[in-house]
Each structure stands twice: as structure tokens, then as C-alpha cells.
């Protein structure tokens, strides 16, 4: 068998091509709540049933050639945006979810990918517009979750995600230190008309699958940068340095704009037209 590395070092489940035992197609860390049906939905290889998935090596049996998807996950690291009072996004998420203000409001679709948000049509799915929106519909309450800071970091790094196609079950892709794997989102949250879009949960879950299960998985980015540390140097010496530097740049730019809210009505009208949410007034 080949040597596993990357995120595969923590995998309990491995996926190989039956005709090429040395080709690791993917795998995952097995945590509570992952069923064969969940696994089937992620890799489409084994019987679809609700029995608990067992650790081991799974071989793909197919008539044709088995290849990894060429789709790459959206790189992401911990979002250090401000959630102070006066930040409408954070305030509205806290108001909806009814939790302590010590917790953080997390964007499901990251601010750093505003261009993709607009070009991939996400903006048109938003029905609740922010009243103060220097960055447009991406700051809608429908793109936010209130998470305790450690859980927030795990969410941003795709260590866990929420599967909307299995009753909003929490799936952990790395070790379940918080004991949240296999639990479900509260029905009261799901019944809230302001809750996040199902499609955004599905997008995040797909990114988590690509990040953790494709091949050996993506590297774990360093998140701990104490005051005075050389954050840029650490990033440049790590994996996917260019991609992460780009993410950090756009993320910080987005949060800088978020902190400097402009409520000018003409600017807001222009943003709405750009996002395609209101017709031109002529």
C-alpha cells in the first residue's frame, strides 16, 4: 500500500482504484454520525444505507477509468473580521441566533471571494438585503452563522461542515474535539425565515469534502499568529503560499471596507443594481 501523507495521516477511511492499488483517490477521518449513505453521497462508491460507516480501505469497482475530480476547493483560513456592535452583519446574525455577543458571526461564503459571489450568481439568491452594505449582499444575514470562536475557526478551516441533505447533520472531517459530530442543527434555527440559504450550506459542505477527502487532502494552514510574529513570513514558507496570500489580502481588504460603513443612499442603490436585486429606477 502507498504511504499516506497530508491530511490523510489522520484518515481512517481510504479510497483506492481497485485496478491501481497505489493510487489514493481520497479518504476521510471517521467521526460520529457518518453513515454509508453520507459516504456514498460524497464519493458514490458503496451501498447506500444508514448503517454506520466502518474504518478501512475501500476500492472503487467501475467499468471505466476512475479519476479524481479536477475541481479544487476554495482556499480559506480563519476570518479575523470585526464583530463589534455597529457591524450590521454581526449584529443581525446575533439577533437572529440569540447567543452571547462573545461569539463570532461567521460568513459561510467568505468575504474574500466577493468576485466569485457576484459572478457565480449567489447575490441573486439573497432575499434579505443588509441596510448598510459596503460589500453588498454577501453581508446578508442569510450568509451568516453565529459560532463560538474555536468552532468558528474549525468552520473556516473546513474541519467540519453541515450537510443540508441529511437533515442538517454536522459532519466532522477531522478529530471531533468538541463532540459535535453526528448532531443536527436546532429545528428552531431552521424554521427561522432569516436562516442561511440551503444552497450556501451545500456549497460549504462541498468545499469541506474537496478539502479533506480528495487525495491526501489539503494541508492544514497555520492559524496561530501571536502578537509580534511574522505572519506573512509564516504564510510564504507554508503550503499554497500564493493562494493563501491572495486570500489574506482580499479578506483584510473586505473587512477594512466592512469597518468603514457608508450609508449613502445613492451608493446603496448602485450596489443593488450591480448585484441584480432591484431594477434600475430610470
TrEMBL record:
Q: Which InterPro entries match?
A: DUF7881, HNH_nuc
- Where do Basic and acidic residues bias regions lie? 270-282
For the region Disordered, give the residue spans: 260-282
- Residues in domain HNH nuclease? 102-163
DUF7881 domain: which residues?
Answer: 10-46
What name does this protein carry? HNH nuclease domain-containing protein
What high-level taxonomic lineage is stated for the organism? Eukaryota, Fungi, Dikarya, Ascomycota, Pezizomycotina
